[in-house]
Amino acid sequence: MTTLEILATGPLALVEDLGRPGLAHLGVTRSGAADRRSHTLANRLVANPADRATVEITFGGFSARVRDGDVTVAVTGADANPSVDGVPFGTNGIRHVRDGQVLTLSMPRSGVRSYLAVRGGVDAEPVLGSRSHDVLSAIGPRPLRPGDLLAIGEHAQDFPELDQAPVAPVAAGDLDLTVVPGPRDDWFTDPEALVRTDWVASDRSDRVGTRLTGQPLTPRDPERQLPSEGAVRGSVQVPPNGLPVILGPDHPVTGGYPVIGVVVDRDVDRIAQVRPGQRVRLHWSHPRA
Length: 289
Description:
The protein is mostly beta strands. It has helices at residues 36-45, 193-196, 265-271, and strands at 3-9, 12-16, 54-58, 62-67, 71-77, 83-84, 87-88, 94-97, 102-105, 113-118, 149-151, 175-181, 199-201, 209-213, 229-230, 235-237, 245-247, 254-255, 259-263, 279-284. A 7-stranded mixed beta barrel has the order 12-19-16-17-14-13-20. It has a 6-stranded antiparallel beta sheet with strand order 7-6-9-4-1-11, with no helix packed on it. A 5-stranded antiparallel beta sheet has the order 2-3-10-5-8, covered by helices on one side.
């Protein structure tokens, strides 16, 4: 069986697919790739179905040796200057890697997360129907460590149709996100402050949520309590300190903090590439009365 021998993982390397939907009633969130577009593109480039597992690599520093066979790979998302035996092959492109060669990803020029797809997919043991690791609940294959061997699954008869995907690089500047107001925007004295403020991504951000720093939002009644209610990815929760948190793929399924708005689904994947210190601006999806 062909495997990838993990030599280095960088800050964090996880096996991720498209998650485990439909289990919120059991207290299990969907999880899955933080940047679903990049995950799906990587699989498409190597002719995998979209739900095959990839490796989500945070801030590069990753390397792996191919063992017991040859593989075809693609790297998408943050441009980590992927190379094979020191020879770069480009983000959003495919590369054939021979038995014994070493694949390396460096610190990305911009963005946070890169996605490594292998033709056939990463064949980790599924948990509750998914190969995704959830950092909050620790469900799914554990984070990768040097010395791990990742099995590669059987690939379909389809062959890659592209050598390179014409995808714009991950933006390094300000990030603009569209937000639907509510359901608890009326809990704040000035909900418009959410879209007037130039927020900055905190270094405490992770797959559970992207924390924003800036001028805190003010609740109408600081003593008012909110019973736990369902939460979805992209929800903008406001804890007692008044600093918004945008919930990520590993968010809890319920929360007791008011949600002032929800990032629209088409923008959710972009949040996965926000670096600490990067400025984030929020805009209402439609003019408010």
